[in-house]
Amino acid sequence: MTDPFAFDYPSPLAGYEGLEPLPVELNEDGKSMKNPQNGTLSKAYEEFPDPLAKDRRGGFDVHIYHFQNNPDQVAYARALYERVRREFPELRIYRFYEGPLGPHPIAMFEVNLFTPAQFGAFIPWLIINRGPLSALVHPNTDEEEEERNHTQRATWLGDRIPLDLRVFKLMKQAAKKNNQGGKTALHVSPRDVTATTVPSYVLEYAPMVWLHSEEAYMPSDIGEQLAHTTPMVDWKPIEKAPSATTLNNLDQLNNLGNTSVYLTSKEGIDAEPQPSWFGGIKPDQDGRTQGAISSAIILCDHGDGALDAFYFYFYAEHNMIRFSNGVPQAIWYSQHASGQAFTYGATEKRGKRPIAYSGKGTHANYAISGKHDHTIPGFNLPDGLIVDQTDSGTLWDPMLSAYVYSYDVSEEIFQAYDSGYPVNWLNFNGQWGDDALPGGPELFGQKKYAAGPNGPKFKKLVRDKVCPSSPCVVLPFRIWENRTLEEHEHRTASS
C-alpha cells in the first residue's frame, strides 16, 4: 500500500484564494449544488494540466494485463488487443508482450493517451470492454516521479496487480550517483537481449566486429559519455541544460540548440595526455564489454516479412542487414559519410554471423581486412591519401552488450524491447562529440578532429534499398583481396 504521507500535496485552491463564498442553493433536482458560472470552460478540456507530459511520451499510459499461463485470459487479451488497434488506430499502441517486462510482473500491452479527448473516449470504453482483465492507468510527469506515478497517482480498473517497484528505486540510485559525479549506471538492470521478444533471427545473424590490433579507442558505454561531456553551442555551455544529462533526458537539449548542440568533452578533444575514458572498454575473451552497454540494435519493420535490422556501434557507424521472412538478403557497411553493400552470401562469417572490420581510430566498417582508402567514398581502394587500416585484432560481439529498439515507420517513434532500456537519447538532435576546433590541424585539407556525428535517427532508418542513397550497388562477392600491387607481386613470387 502506498504511504500517503510520503508525498507533498499542493493546495487544490492555489490560484482561487480570496473569492466570494460559494452559493448554498440547490438546483431544481433538489440534490446538486448551484455553481457560479463564468462562461469559460476549464483548460483541462483542451490539454492535460501540469505536470502531465505533453511531449511524445503522452500524458497517460494504460497497461492492460493478462496472466500468460491462463489460456482464457490470453485469448481474451489478444482479441481485445486487436479490437483496440482497429477501433482506436489513432492511438499509440505497443506490441503484445507475452511475459513480464520491467516493473510489470505479468504479460500486458500498452496504450498511450495524448489528449483529454483521447482519455475521455478510451477509458470509458475500456471500463466496459476490458472483460476479465485488469488495467493500470498512470500519468507521465518528470522521470524522478516514476514510482509515484505508478503508485500514489495510479488508477486501477479491476483487480490491482502488484508491481515490481525495485526498478524505480534502482533508477533513482543511478540518477543520484550520476549527479554526484560517479560512474553512470543508467542501464538499470536491463534484460539480456536474448531474453526479450526481439525476433530470434536478428540475433542469430548479428554481425561480429574485429577491432584493430593497435586500436586505442575501444567501444564505450553509451551513458558513460554523458558523464564526461558538457552540452555546448558555439563552444559555450548551455545555461539552461539539465544539471545532469542522462539517456532519459538528453532529448531536452533539442529545445536549447537543436542540431547545434555538441556533447563536448570536459577535458577537450585535443587534451594531452588524453583522459582514460577516451579508451573505452576492451572486449573480454567472449567479446563482451563488461559493465558497458556499447551498442544499439534498431529494428525497422516494413511489413510483408521485410525487416531492416540496424546494428549501431553506437551512434554513427553501423551495419544494417535486410531480412525477408527471417532470411538475410544483404548487408550495409557504413564507412564515414558513405559505405558499401554486399549480399549476405558474399560476406565473411563466423557461423551464420557476418564479420565487420573496424577502422583503426575511425571505426568505419569494412567487409575485408587490410588498407582502405576513403578519399573517394564507397570505392574502398587499397591505397590512397587517407587510409583506414583494419585487421583481426580484438573480436567484439556487440550483441552481448546492447539495447534493442523498434522504430515505428509511420509515427517515427522508438520503442524499447525492455523497460530497462532508455529511449529518449535516440531522439537527441545534436552531435555526439566536440565541435571541430577552429584552425585545428589538417591532413590533405581534412581536419584531424572532425566535428562529432549525429545519432542513429539521422542514418536513414527508413530506406527503399539496402543503401541509404542511390545509386545502390549490392556486390555479390568481395571484389578484391585488399593488397597493394607490390603485396600481390610479393605473394605471387613466394607462392
UniProtKB/TrEMBL annotation:
InterPro entries: DOPA-like_sf (IPR023389), DOPA_dioxygen (IPR014980). Gene3D superfamilies: DOPA-like domains. Signal peptide: none annotated. It holds the Pfam family DOPA_dioxygen. PANTHER family: DUF946 FAMILY PROTEIN, VACUOLAR PROTEIN SORTING-ASSOCIATED PROTEIN 62. This is Vacuolar protein sorting-associated protein 62. It comes from Aspergillus bertholletiae. The lineage of its organism: Eukaryota, Fungi, Dikarya, Ascomycota, Pezizomycotina.
